[in-house]
């Protein structure tokens, strides 16, 4: 009888996620478990791989009950078999700008849990006394680091998310007037600048995300460009040696990272059993609670989606916390449409062609060609 009762009492859900900060996800799940007799199985994916895993799961079966991923993924809601979020699931205090990130094709496909997801300039206070405000200043100091066998700066060079702030500094943006806009003079100028940094050995173009973060923590890089998602990990490891600054300007122009939310989305919700649906709805409302949003911010410094809480924490912010808010304000929202998903693919393919020998002009043209072809294919499906 004991085993029969136990099996009925404890229910199971599976949650996939891609956020680097494990403590953020564990916090949500552990707090929810305190109120509910439930087992939530967590599966963490590399940020570069979770999109493909969900698309494969949608095509061949094996989707989880819940996913937490960047809001631009909702543009792929049809391919990912995401279910629409009912309007009455949203709490009233949620920031309208945060809520809008989960909106595509006139419906909501996710519930924002945290916001930010933007890039910052980190620096090692043991190596940098005063952070550079411009790339001109940073480049002028590069030799002092190179002479000591220290890389001036590191980031995940091959990931085009990190390229976007450079594009923005040349007044370019991948989506303009709701159209994919890649074959532009701004794109050409940004590509040349970005590639030249690697040629100058300012950044290691072969160093991926894990490599770059490890090198920065170990003092092999003076600066690092990384996301707000890495802040708590870096702080825990480096302590008072961690410095945070705004992304440096280029020729006086501000670099603007993309920002978004991490949303809770529901693959195949409509096909779930009734009891499971109740639990999923409960969890969706639970993660929006002010008390939970407060707990997450105070433990991880990930920004809440509550408009009231965001305003209060912004007023109180000092030191590194103040920089987190300032960079968030300077960042531009990432479009949550299928066009952005197509633009990412086109930029990545075009940049690889640029590295392989195409000119910047030819690469920008090729990016646009890839995007146009993909849009046509989508319309014909």
CATH topology of the largest domain: D-Maltodextrin-Binding Protein, domain 2
Nearest-angstrom radius of gyration? 22 Å
Please bin the fraction of helical residues. 40-55%
Described by the principal axes of the CA atoms, the overall outline is globular
CATH class of the largest domain: Alpha Beta
CATH architecture of the largest domain: 3-Layer(aba) Sandwich
User: Cα distance, first to last residue?
Assistant: 54 Å
Structural class: alpha/beta
Poorly predicted spans? 1-9
Number of strands: 15
What is the total number of structural domains?
A: 3
Largest sheet features: 7 strands, mixed
Report strand %. Answer: 15-25%
Mean pLDDT: 93
CATH superfamily of the largest domain, please? Periplasmic binding protein-like II
Number of helix segments? 17
Keywords: Signal, Transport
Organism: Photobacterium leiognathi
Protein name: ABC transporter substrate-binding protein
Family: Belongs to the bacterial solute-binding protein 1 family.
Could you explain the architecture of this structure?
The protein is of the alpha/beta class. Helices cover 46% and strands 17% of the residues. It has 3 domains: 2-116 and 260-332, 3-Layer(aba) Sandwich (D-Maltodextrin-Binding Protein, domain 2); 119-157 and 203-248, D-Maltodextrin-Binding Protein, domain 2 (3-Layer(aba) Sandwich); 159-199 and 337-381, no CATH class. It has helices at 2-9, 22-35, 50-60, 77-80, 96-100, 135-140, 142-146, 164-169, 185-199, 209-217, 231-238, 274-286, 290-300, 307-316, 319-330, 338-355, 360-380; strands at 11-17, 38-44, 66-70, 103-104, 107-108, 111-116, 119-124, 151-154, 175-176, 179-180, 221-227, 242-245, 258-265, 303-304, 332-333. Strands 1, 2, 3, 6, 13, 14 and 15 form a 7-stranded mixed sheet that branches. Strands 8-11-7-12 form a 4-stranded mixed sheet. A two-stranded antiparallel sheet has the order 4-5. Helix 2 packs antiparallel against helix 13 and helix 16 packs antiparallel against helix 17 (360-380).
């Amino acid at each position: 009888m004991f085993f029969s009762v136990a099996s009925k009492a404890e229910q199971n859900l599976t949650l996939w996620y891609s956020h680097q900060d494990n403590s953020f996800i564990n916090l949500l799940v552990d707090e929810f478990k305190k109120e509910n007799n439930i087992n939530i199985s967590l599966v963490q994916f590399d940020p570069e791989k979770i999109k493909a895993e969900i698309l494969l799961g949608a095509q061949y079966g094996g989707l989880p009950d819940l996913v937490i991923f960047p809001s631009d993924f909702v543009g792929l809601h049809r391919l990912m078999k995401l279910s629409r979020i009912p309007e009455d699931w949203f709490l009233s205090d949620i920031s309208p700008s945060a809520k809008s990130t989960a909106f595509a094709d006139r419906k909501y496909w996710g519930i924002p849990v945290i916001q930010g997801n933007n890039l910052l300039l980190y620096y090692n206070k043991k190596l940098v006394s005063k952070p550079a405000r411009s790339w001109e200043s940073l480049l002028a100091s590069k030799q002092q680091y190179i002479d000591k066998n220290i890389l001036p700066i590191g980031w995940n060079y091959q990931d085009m998310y990190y390229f976007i702030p450079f594009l923005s500094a040349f007044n370019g943006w991948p989506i303009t007037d709701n159209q994919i806009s890649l074959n532009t003079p701004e794109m050409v100028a940004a590509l040349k600048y970005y590639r030249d940094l690697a040629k100058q050995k300012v950044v290691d173009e072969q160093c991926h995300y894990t490599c770059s973060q490890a090198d920065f923590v170990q003092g092999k890089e003076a600066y690092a460009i990384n996301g707000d998602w890495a802040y708590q990990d870096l702080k825990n490891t480096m302590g008072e040696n961690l410095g945070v600054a705004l992304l440096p300007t280029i020729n006086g122009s501000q670099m603007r990272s993309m920002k978004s939310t991490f949303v809770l989305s529901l693959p195949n919700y409509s096909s779930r059993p009734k009891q499971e649906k109740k639990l999923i709805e409960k969890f969706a409302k639970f993660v929006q609670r002010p008390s939970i949003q407060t707990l997450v911010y105070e433990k991880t410094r990930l920004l809440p989606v509550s408009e009231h809480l965001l305003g209060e924490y912004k007023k109180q912010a000092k030191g590194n916390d103040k920089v987190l808010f300032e960079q968030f304000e300077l960042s531009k929202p990432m479009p949550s449409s299928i066009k952005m998903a197509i633009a990412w693919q086109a930029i990545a393919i075009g940049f690889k062609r640029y590295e392989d020998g195409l000119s910047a002009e030819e690469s920008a043209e090729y990016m646009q060609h890839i995007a146009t072809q993909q849009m046509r294919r989508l319309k014909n499906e």
